[in-house]
Amino acid sequence: MTQAPAKRRKPWWRRLLKELAVLLVLLAGLVALVLIGINTSPGKRFLADQINGYTLSSGISVKIGRIEGSIYNEAVLKNVEVHDLEGAFLTSPEIRLDWAPFAWLYNTLHIDEVSAETLTLERLPVTRPSEEDGPLLPGFDIYIGALEVEELIIGEAVTGERQVGSLRGSADIRSGIAKVDLQAALDGGDRLALRLDSEPDADKLDLGARVVTPEGGVIAQMLGLPDAAELTVTGEGSWAEWKGEANATLGPVQLADLDLTARGGTYTIAGTMRPARLVQGTLRELLAGTQNVRATGTFDKRVANGEVRLDGPSLEAVLRGGVDLAANRFDDLAVAAELKRPAALLPTGTRDAADDALKRFIVFGIYGKTHI
User: What is the pTM of this model?
Assistant: First the structure.
């Protein structure tokens, strides 16, 4: 009797690969079902509920009435409200969003177009101070092909009277490139225009910005300015050599007259400022008059390093060190100051008589401490 040949067993690794392949197909099918399901009416309702239930540490939250369209490209957000600690302060009946959500897998917020026919700022937000030391700059790329608000409404609670305007812009901020174009205007006289075209690899750096706000205007209210103000910053050139200037006025006062330069990655600001009207109390007295300003430094990987010098009639100060905007902290910051007019720290009626005496006292104290 002839013995049947033994069956040859397949290698274990081939069986394992086959089982893994089946598992991957099942997982892919499950992911596809989830992706399809989230784009249905119940799925969109679930997504809106998740957004509505999230609140930032500052107290800011977003409420969405419902989501229409496709959440994967052209979505329509109905009855959008941004809330603070006291309720809704920013509202829109409809916001259209054309975006690419899967770009987030590449650490990019990619929005082809975001628009609203009406956007209303009822009042300025009321928030709680954040206890988190998060970064000041985002750690991801941002692309907004078009931003458009046809009717931007500023409520009476902001400036005392209702104002209407418009907002348009675009932005492309990523490694090596920063292109921003923003324009806003209100019937009350506020104007904002910003154009930035920065591309180090192409050795290109163009900047133009202008902000105008009347007394009691929206921007003046937001910044706490006591008078009408105007700020203009212009400049063009390359990253190897760029020149510009900045001018600012507050009412009749020339607030700033500065020359701006950039050469080989080093930035310089030089000129004069009169910032006393922006502050109160003793600091206003110390910063009274024309202040000579000179600042030089570098900015790399969100870290600014350099020196700032301020020289005025009452005070001379020097700041050296760095500011890490990613970590939101100072690095090796050192401050030195000389009080030229010590009487500026005293009430007005006693300054002249005490000025010389205070100078002698301070000098004696310094020398005495040095020789101990």
Answer: 0.68
